[in-house]
């Protein structure tokens, strides 16, 4: 094992449920030494996770960032351990696996943003018909009289907004036309 060790932050990556879309997290590697360091990334689960770039070099007193991507999964968070291995560039020739330094990064679900069982607002597998039922439940009118009043007010708001927009555009156009005409008249008059 070499004396040059990369500083890896963070040592725990947290992903948020639901896991139905790709999620990316950053790992920062810092080289605090005066030697160039070569690194490579090993993952215990490379089917659900990927790291880019998986190999590279870091100049003395420099940093680089890695992106760890979780592919969409339908079940729980798949287990994985990210192993960041590094060695000084001058020791790479003839180096054994024991010569490489290693830092492990854990992957977990974010405990603050994990849905709780039975909480309706945080359900993980909502279907379109579920959303329609929730919307209908919260947006049903109390009586038919309310429905008619709501429809009338919506229609009047639309016409009022359209009329206001038209008048504003007409006013701006008229002001531009008049100011342009005044500018032309001002330029055409001789100045003594």
From TrEMBL:
Keyword Isomerase on entry: no
Secretion signal span: none
Sequence intervals crossing the membrane: 163-183
Domain of life: Eukaryota
Any Pfam family: Motile_Sperm
Lineage: Eukaryota, Metazoa, Ecdysozoa, Arthropoda, Hexapoda
InterPro entries: Ig-like_fold (IPR013783), MSP_dom (IPR000535), PapD-like_sf (IPR008962)
Keyword flag Transmembrane helix: yes
Protein name per its UniProtKB record: MSP domain-containing protein
Keyword terms: Membrane, Transmembrane, Transmembrane helix
Domain annotation MSP: ranges: 5-110
């Amino acid at each position: 094992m070499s004396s040059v060790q990369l500083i890896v932050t963070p040592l725990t990556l947290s992903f948020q449920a639901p896991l139905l879309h790709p999620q990316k997290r950053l790992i920062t590697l810092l080289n605090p030494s005066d030697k160039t360091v070569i690194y490579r990334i090993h993952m215990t689960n490379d089917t659900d996770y990927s790291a880019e770039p998986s190999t590279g070099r870091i100049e003395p007193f420099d940093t680089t960032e890695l992106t760890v991507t979780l592919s969409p999964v339908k079940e729980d968070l798949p287990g994985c351990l990210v192993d960041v291995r590094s060695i000084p560039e001058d020791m790479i020739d003839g180096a054994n696996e024991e010569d490489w330094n290693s830092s492990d990064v854990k992957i977990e679900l974010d405990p603050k943003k994990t849905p709780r069982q039975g909480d309706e607002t945080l359900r993980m597998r909502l279907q379109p018909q579920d959303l329609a039922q929730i919307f209908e439940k919260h947006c049903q009118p109390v009586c038919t009289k309310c429905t008619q009043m709501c429809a009338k007010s919506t229609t009047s708001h639309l016409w009022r907004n359209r009329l206001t927009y038209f008048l504003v555009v007409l006013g701006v156009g008229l002001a531009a036309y008049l100011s342009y005409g005044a500018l032309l008249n001002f330029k055409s008059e001789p100045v003594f």
